[in-house]
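Exercise 7. Given the components listed, write out the predicted structure of the assembled complex. Treat all entries as one system.
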Amino acid sequence: MNLSELGVGQKALILQAPVELPVKLFEMGCLPGEEVELVFAAPFRDPLCFRVQGTLVSMRRELAELIPITEPHVG
Amino acid sequence: MSAKRALRVALVGRPNTGKSSLFNRLTGLNQKVGNYPGVTMEKHVGLAKIGAGALAEVVDLPGVYSLHPSSDDERVVMHALTTNTDAERSDVVVGLADGTNLKTCLFVFTQVLDLGFPAVLAVTMVDEMERRGAQLDITALESALGVRVIPVNSRTGMGFDQLQEAILAAKPSTQGPFFQPAGAHLPWLQKKQECIGAGLTYRAWLDGLSDPDFAESVRASGRSPERARADEAIQRYRWVNQWLRKVYHYDPVRDRRAAARFDRIVVHPVWGSAFLFGVLFVLFQALFYGASVPMDAIDGGIANLAAWLHGVLPSGFLNHFVTSGLLPGIAGVLIFLPQIALLFFSIALLEETGYMARVVFIMDRFMRPFGLSGKSVVPLVSGTACAIPAVMSTRNMESARERWLAIAVTPLMTCSARLPVYALIIGLVVPNTPWLGISLQGLTLFGLYALGFAAALVGSALLNRLVPQQKAAHFLMEMPPYRMPIARNVATAVWTRSRSFVVEAGKIIVSISIVLWFLANSGPKGLPNFSASYEPMPIEESYLGSIGRGIQPVLAPLGYDWKISVAIASSFVAREVFVGTMATLYSVDGDEIAPVRARMADEINPETGKPYFNLAVGISLLVFYAFALQCMSTLAVVVRETRSWRFALIQFTAYAAVAYVAAWIAFRLISYLTL
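Answer.
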């Protein structure tokens, strides 16, 4: 599963940090093992806005598709 | 640090941590601050008396997520912190951390500490933090970081005395390093350390990874500089998370739910669009109706002043120069002020509250087909006030290509300098009678705004096709929390921007008006008569008349006579000069000070015997002004931002060509239709 498949309000953990991702993403706090929640999405679900490490980070769908996550959990 | 130089204090922190508010409070200097990530783009410097010490120089560096640079403003920070020159090197760093979001803020602060700077950590937004029930053990955090940690409140000034003391007594961290390059990274790092002769490992690391040549040699040895940075991020966050668990307790679930609910409305396809439309509608109504009262007052006031001076001053050269040369020029600047101030006020509010970032977010998908991202919305919207700050606001774009596109098309947006030209021409040629209850004049103006916006998008799409695409940059943006705007921040934004308009643009416009007046009052046959028996020279005999006649053949296909040609030639300096020139051209004919519009309406076309300013000439002029890049200041800023004269020259020429062709088509078409 990847980050773009998360439903609004769903949470999951980031599995890995593939090297092809921009390093800025990691520096903003999106790291393996961290919990992410899809907080809201723009029309057509692109771009997407996630909460990770207490901040809201928005990114395009194409980038979210590259980030592997665990199965979503509730709460 | 040399004995003579003032202590230099650098402010470093993530965007949206209240850095500029702290800077304003510390130095009292006017400076722009907002909620859109990276709004502090230039290096802002202010002087502050720190404690009982001497004056210190405080540098407000752009907000960054990391010291490794990915965009221009991050390069500025990296340079400021690693330079060796005494004239630039910082003595003390004040790190900033938002008390409601400590985790990610501490990341970049540990990087600063690893560089070995004497440092202090200022924890901001403490009022918000307390209201939300967050608890922070300051003493424990101090011992973990090995430097002083001071909670401050920039709204009330709380904590600033302690902060100043701590700055004066700042020492490098007693803890750390917070990150240790290890394993595979060590061999090349040692090589880099030898190269720069640096004792500090982290300095060599930062230098090495952002030096393209060196990064290449890292890659050649089978290591990726990106992987190295990612490893650093993982290690630092591990440290931060470990410590914060012990010293910081904050459970923001309830606040988050409310904010997230609101955000879902704001980005909703129907409600969000309605909300955005509503915000823009109110903004434009305020711009045109709200500003009309002070504008009329300024207009009337200057007309009265001119009439009064005309009576009081002894008749002759001075009288004529002041009332029809100098005053109309000054009026041409001041008349814009209400609209510019209102627009800057609105943009500052949108940025401060955090809504601007939401606009960027929802517009991103829409802007993509044109080669732009949501981030271009900021320059394009700002471009409706003035292209100069708009071009400057592209600086925080990571993608050089998108930045390039945004700079190329932003001047097509209808800026406030076009307004007086539009207002004058629309008032002349579009009937002031409602059509189905809609003002035709208002509709024309709306059409011109739409034309500018459409031209910017089409232009960008065309350029995007023409110029081959390299690797696309990623759209990655932090969404700032909603915040109550700080009145002082909004006020300083409005004040500094308005002041710079009056001073910078004003200087140009007033001097051009004076030059024009002289050109209109002297000619090949003689200089103006400076004696008391001064008589205005017939405009046909002046230099200005000769220039107008000289270029008129070129502009004749667009329907322009020599007077319009003079006004267009002079307004290549700045568009609004058109109105002033028309005022000068039409008032030097007689000695009465009458509204320019009425005088222009009376002008008869000698060929047709009908009023000269008909719909075809008017629309042709409007179209010309919509496209032509008639603004020296914008060109100067484009040169500065792109570091390329060629870029600005090509841009200017392309705009002029489009303006000429489009105005010609408009003139032909409407002449044909209205015959």
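Discussion: The longest strand of chain B covers residues 92-98. The first helix of chain B runs from residue 19 to 27.
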